[in-house]
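Record passed on here:
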Amino acid sequence: MKSKYMDAQKIITTLKHKEFIKIVHKGNCFEDGAAVYAKEIKENIFLLFIILKDIDIENIQALIAHFDCFNSIGLKEPEQVMFHLSIKDKNDLHYFEQYLKASHN
């Protein structure tokens, strides 16, 4: 039986292959220990994946947000958040993939 839960390592590997860059965050914008990956999708508009490690469940936040520059991610709050999704299982990830496909049309 396949698990409905995600494999965070598999997702991180996929993000690296899709040219996402791991953000070293020093500010208070993200939880300590969170792995943050970002990719610019339009000028100063970024797609972020924030992978939070909890004791019982993996939680991934997907975010499309406007920052003044790439280097401000993790140091400053975004100027605007256009989309936010909490991904807790594979069904949520499927819905997010559908959103991304629709946004390219």
DSSP finds two helices and five strands in the chain. The beta strands are 21-23, 35-42, 45-53, 58-66, 80-87. The helical segments are 8-17, 90-103.
